[in-house]
Amino acid sequence: MFFLLLVGSAVTLAFPFLTQALIDDGVSAKNLNLIALILLSQLGLFLGSITIEVVRNWLMLFIGTKLSITIISDYLKKMLQLPIRFFDTKKMGDFNQRIQDNERIEEFLTSQSLLTFFSIINFSVFFGVLLYYNYTILTVYLILTVLSIGWSYYWLKKRKVLDYLRFQQRAENQESVFEIIKGVTEMKLNQFEDFKRSQWEEVQQKLFKVNIRILKLNQIQLSGFEFMNQLKNILVTFLAATLVVNDKMTLGGLLSVSYIIGQMNSPVNQLISFFRSLQDAKLSLERLNEVQSYPAEESSGQVALPLHTQNNYEFKGIRFDDVSFQYAGSKSPYVLKNINLFIPEGKITAIVGASGSGKTTLMKLLLKFYEPTEGKISYDHININDISPENLRSSCGVVMQDGYIFSDSIERNIITGEKNAHESKLRQAVKTANIEEFIESLPLRYETKIGASGNGISGGQKQRILIARAVYKNPHYIFFDEATSALDSENEKIIHDNLQEFFKGKTVVIIAHRLSTVKNADQILVLKNGELIEKGNHQQLVSERTEYFNLVKNQLELGL
């Protein structure tokens, strides 16, 4: 790459001397042989320059693509290492816009930086050639060039605030479009398509106003730069013409000076582009660095979760000691308050309570999505803060309320990260989830591709795939959050019976509203307004005739 650009610079250096020789030694002397030789030389140099340019563009594409993949890959790698709380404060459009920022960084590191470096070399070469021709012309050129660069740089600095504002508006625009596409079903059901479209149009108006302000700045900067550039060319041409009239320069020298000025203007324009690209890249890098500088979930010193080990602890299981939790924000209310509980090893624990009582939040704490605001959570007497999140989750089979189905085959959605499926485990998982018959009825069976978020399958089929995914891992800990809420009673009964065998020897935590799902649990925990108000088995809690009794009574009255 560097060699090709150096050769390109050397090729362009020959043109002014060939031009002068063509006029002074060829045309003036009426030497057709010399004219033909010079023109053929120019043609050869031109073809060589084109060849170098083609090869250079291919190399730039190769380097730029590799660099782009590296930047985005590093960004995604870091982003996937961040805790869930980071994603709670960001919108989808924000992440998309940050990924697109890599294009600015790529352009700066590849084309802009390299081209500017060799533009400076070209400028220096032609600077020496112009100095050879005439010192006065060079002085006038340099003064006006410095003024034009200073003018452009001043206005580029003013554009920085507007560029950051445009980034925010573009992120909001992408988020608005993403929301419209994802929520199209609800929009049609509730007839507010026009309202959402009008919201999108408001975002476009904001973006338009920002673009207008940026355009004004760009026009002022560009108009001033072009004016000084043209003034510079006119003055230089006037000075050169004066020298020709006074017989201090030949006509060939005038044409050579004009060619040199044109070649020196190109690096100056490139330098302005470099400053603009540098400013864009710095802003983009700041936005990407917000992700890169955020602490990752995994940290040195964290330990693996011990499983299936013999120890001297009297009680093995999960313990909450005075745990309270609130989401980020000083005025955010406490979702969980002074929770003290014990989830015994190898038993089934059910968590019940009204909506908003903190059940799902408690499960997220168990999975180390968040850290307790107060108190301590322990797995077998090991503080959860000291356990590696990745190691912990590798030992957990989880079905969340909003479990995600990827745009991929059914098999890949079940085995997730494994390169090749373990046939017997896969068969057992789909059998346990009672979805084998459905899969076998499909033309491509396990290779059938389903849409993102489970498009193309029913809610019950989606939940059964999620259950199969959890079962396939054969984990030590099972966490189900309303895992069968979309199932009919027949399918729920079959899956419930299948899971009983699978649950043996595993620590299971189930969040559910249906009595049929929780009544056989070894332990039932009742939450209300973020507090643990009751615990015991089904018979004990019913006999106490308090909160759990009321939940059961309400379900029986509703026929659930």
UniProtKB/TrEMBL annotation:
Signal peptide: none
Subcellular locations according to the entry: Cell membrane
Coiled coil stretches, renumbered: none
Keywords: ATP-binding, Membrane, Nucleotide-binding, Transmembrane, Transmembrane helix
Residues covered by the ABC transporter domain: 318-554
GO molecular function, one term: ATP hydrolysis activity
Protein name as annotated: Peptidase domain-containing ABC transporter
A Pfam family annotated for this UniProt entry: ABC_membrane
TM regions (residue ranges): 31-52, 114-133, 139-156
Annotated source species: Chryseobacterium endophyticum
SUPFAM superfamilies per the UniProt record, alphabetical: ABC transporter transmembrane region (SSF90123), P-loop containing nucleoside triphosphate hydrolases (SSF52540)
Gene3D superfamilies, per the entry: ABC transporter type 1, transmembrane domain, P-loop containing nucleotide triphosphate hydrolases
Keyword Membrane among record annotations: yes
Top-rank taxon, per record: Bacteria
Major localization listed first in the record, in broad terms: membrane
Residue stretches making up the ABC transmembrane type-1 domain: 1-280
GO terms for cellular component: plasma membrane
Entry membrane topology: Multi-pass membrane protein
